[in-house]
Input
Amino acid sequence: MRLARRPPPPPGEPVVALINVAFILLIFFMLIGRLDATAPFALSPPLSTEGTPMPGGGMTIAVARDGRLALDGDDGDFAGVSARIRARLAVAPPGTTVRINADAAAPLGALLPIIALFDGRRDGDVVLVVAASGR
Amino acid sequence: MRLPRRQFAPRMSITSLIDLMLILLFFFMISSTYINLRMIPLVSAGAAAAGAVALDRPDRLLIRLGADGAPALAGGRVDHPSLRRIVAERLARDPRGAVLVLPSGGASTQALVSLLDTLAAAGARDVRLVRLEAR
Output
C-alpha cells in the first residue's frame, strides 16, 4: 500500500516587496510633511502667485477667519497674544522669522494690528504665509 | 550512530516591523498637507524703519482697498488688470516711485494678497501698507 504523501504547504507570500513599497512611502511622507506648530483652529491661507519659498523655524501667529488669534498653537485675545509675542521676541535670537498664518477670509481689522506690532523691527523678517496658486 | 542535526538559525519575525512601519506610514499620510506654502514678506530686516509717510506726495501712488476687496485709485474703483497697467505705466516713468496701500479693516486677507500680487506683477518693488492714525 502506498501511503499518500501530505501535500506540501502553500508557499508563503513574499512580503519583501510590500516592505519596500511601504518604506519608500514612509520616507516620502516624512520628507514632505511639516511638523510645525499648528493653529488651534482650522484655517486656509490665501492664494498667491507671487510668494517666495518659506523658511522653517521661528514663531507662528495664526489668525482665524473670525479674528481669533494664536501664537504657536496657544490661542488668546489680542492683549494676551501681543504680550506673549513681545515676551518671545525679547528672548528670541536675532534673525528670528515671524510667520503670520492668516485665513484667507480673516478680516484685515484683525491682521493689521498684529503687523503693526512689528513696526520698526530690524532684526528679523515678518512674513505672511500664502499658498501657491498657478498663474 | 547519531546523525548530527542540522542547525538552523532562528528566523526573526518581521511582522512587528511591518506593523510599526504601516502605522508610521498612516500617521504621515494623514498628517501631511499637500499645500505648497510660500510667503510674502511684510517687514524685512534690512528695510528702513517704518514711520510716518505723506500720502499726498506726487511720487507716491495711493491705492485704497475697500471693505469689499475692490481696489480704488484716485477715488474710483479699478479692476486688477487696469490697476496693473496703470501701476506699470507709472513705474515706467518713475521706477523708484513708491506704492502705498491703505486697506480697509473690513477687507479680507485674500483681497490684500491679491492686490499685492497685482502690484508685484506690475513691477512695484516699494510697496508699503499704511494706516491712518489720529493726531
Q: What stands out?
A: The radius of gyration of chain A is 25 Å. Chain A has a mean pLDDT of 84.
